[in-house]
Amino acid sequence: MSDYPINMAIIPQVKAFFDEATNTLSYVVKDPDSNVCAVVDSVMDIDMAAGRITYDHADAMITHIEAEGLRLEWIIETHVHADHLSAAPYIQQKLGGEIGIGEKILVVQDTFGKIFNEGTEFQRDGSQFDRLFRDGDTYQVGGMTCFAIHTPGHTPACMVHVMGDAAFVGDTLFMPDGGSARADFPGGDAGQLYDSIQKVLALPDAMRLFMCHDYGPNGRDIQWQTTVAEEKAHNIHVGGGRTREEFVKFRTERDATLAMPRLILPSLQVNMRAGEVPRDVDGNPVLKVPVNRL
Ligand SMILES: [Fe+2]
């Protein structure tokens, strides 16, 4: 842990955008010492029944970035999301910036390339992305030296991104009263997820943690920000010193009761292509529904 270039003195401005359709949080993160920003986990709107894609959520982020006079340098995906579609290419086309994800995207592309019976034109080398991060890799958002921590378990390519005193935890953790994300998708592993969560909890107590999802458990309002100290003390799945064995048993039993996310089929096809919608032989955007494969 000590090898990561942690700098709690850098305090970026974080603006959250909540997507009610998928309970996803997207973020614009601004370097405190320049006008440079990053986007974390954007959302593209889809009406599956109609097969219609729109960009209201992404447009709200773009409007904010333009109104603040910011320059977008990075479009980060914490992982290949299974519950919403990324708007990364749409935002990149409007504002520029590089799209980055964990290098284990190759594992995800191989797994789901088979499930969706993708042809040879679907490259499984991560080349749809501009940057593939390994554990500990750094990148600049203006003056901020940011870094990625490999946190597999929910999916193989999950990474937590740390920018100054703020960490974007993806689906490793939810708010303390929400616990943790499922670990039963292809390539998921509850034991790995526990180990990855420990990496997050080893960050400084005061580090701000920003969630990718919140479902407002027990009827509370949507929240997305907590700290390492709060998660260590109060997380209902891993806080208070719950052991690895206890977590794996609990997580495995819980996951067996969960339905597939409503948008898993379109999400995976799009997100494993860095947010591009696949196309048919005539070049028209199209999504598949493989039957009885998940
Ligand atoms: Fe996820």
Describe the structure.
Helix 4 packs across helix 6. The protein has seven helices and 14 strands. Helices cover 24% and strands 22% of the residues. It has one domain (13-259): Metallo-beta-lactamase, Chain A (4-Layer Sandwich). The chain has a six-stranded mixed β-sheet with strand order 1-2-3-6-7-8, with helices on one face. Strands 9-10-11-12-13-14 form a six-stranded mixed β-sheet. With 294 residues, the protein is an alpha/beta fold. The protein has helices at 56-67, 88-95, 105-115, 190-201, 228-234, 244-255, 264-271, and strands spanning 13-19, 24-30, 36-40, 45-47, 52-54, 71-76, 98-102, 131-133, 138-141, 144-150, 159-163, 166-168, 208-210, 225-227. The chain binds fe (ii) ion. Fe (ii) ion binds next to loops.
Q: How many distinct folded domains?
A: 1
Number of strands: 14
The CATH superfamily is known as Ribonuclease Z/Hydroxyacylglutathione hydrolase-like
The low-pLDDT segments are none
Largest sheet: 6 strands, mixed
CATH topology name: Metallo-beta-lactamase, Chain A
Bound compounds, each kind once, are: fe (ii) ion
Tell me the distance between the termini. Answer: 36 Å
Give the integer mean of the pLDDT values.
96
**What is the CATH domain class?**
Alpha Beta
Q: What's the order of the H and E elements?
A: EEEEEHEHEHEEEEEHEEHHH
Radius of gyration of CA atoms, rounded to a whole number: 18 Å
Number of helical runs?
Answer: 7
What is the second-level CATH architecture? 4-Layer Sandwich
Q: What kind of oligomer do you see? A: single chain
The helix content, as a percent range, equals 10-25%
Shape: globular
Sequence of strands across the biggest β-sheet: 1-2-3-6-7-8
Strand content: 15-25%
